[in-house]
Each structure stands twice: as structure tokens, then as C-alpha cells.
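go over my protein:
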Amino acid sequence: MIRLLLALTAAALLQFIPFLNLPLLWFSAFFHELGHALATLASGGQVQALFLYADGAGQCLSRGGWPVLIGLSGYPAASLAGLLLWQGVQRRQRLPWLWRGLALLVLGVALLWVRDLLTLALLAALVLGLWGLSRLGNRGQWLWALFSASLLVNALLSPLNLFLTAGGDAALLYQLTAIPATIFVIFWVFVGLSTVGWIVHQGGKPCGEKSV
């Protein structure tokens, strides 16, 4: 529990520190856009390209599929990725497999959907970072926890930023459904809080392990 709270606090603070926050923003943007891509495929569409930008933003270009599902999927995908990564981080024997699985995922996305040099460079930086964490072994467990917590925090803070902007997924969904953008923001925040709440309820422990 203490590790979870410390990791969440550190991730939240790092979100507002220029330059230091960029690796965490790229990591979160990757899973956000991957969520859009998977929703596109699940609803019968085609993913044309996936972009990451230097400022931590991202974009998924698609054709076909169900636009509402695609627009809804980004923030919940980041929350789910944070949950799964947190569960993996808590068992030290899984750490060697975490970086391999994530590296293969990143490389697969790069081969399938990345068409520009900047996104390739940022994904390469992520893979190198994951490799560096793997070299630390169990000593890097806190850094793994920070990266998983950053996904959970970003999935909460990024939707809240939409209250201050006129664009983003919420505005797109409003155009598609005429439902106020605030409703979608509330939904995403609810999903993010529920994910964090579930982990806290479990005591920050992995699935199947009892809290004391």
C-alpha cells in the first residue's frame, strides 16, 4: 500500500516537471493510442498510422470502425495497462518478462502502424529505457512501479485537462453523439478512479495474494 501511494504521488508530481515528465508522457501516450487502435480493429476498422509527438501527445489515424468506441477507448486503455503492469511489478520474478513483453509490444506496433521517424525514435527510446530497467533487476522495482503509476495518474489527470481545452477526445465524441463533453470526462475519471481504488482495495498486492 505504501509503495502504491508513494509511486502515485511521485508520478503525479513528475507530470508537472518539464523534460523529466516526457518519458512518462510518451509511455502513457503509447497505451492511449494503442487503445484507440485496438478499438478500431475490434469494431471492424483499419488502423492507418500511429503517431507520438515530442511534447507527449499522440494520434491514431484509422479508417472505418465505430467512432464512438474508438474515441472512448484511449484513457481506459491506459488505466488497464497501468493495472496490469502494476500487478506484474509486484512479483519480482516477473520483472525479466515484463520488459521483454513490453518491448515486443512496442516493436510490433512500430512495424504495423508507425510511418514517421519521430515516433520511431520515441519508441526506440522507450525500448532502450525498458532494457535499462531490466538491467537493474530487482533494484529497478521502484522505477517499474513509477512507470505503472504514471499510467494510472495520466489516465486521471489528462481527462481533467480537457475541462480547460476545447479539443481532444471529449470534443470529438460530442460532435459524434451530441452528448456534452463533460459526461465523457466524468466517465474517464470514474474509470481511472475505479482502477486506482481497486488496486488500493487489494492493498497494492498482486491478484491472488491476500492483504494483511
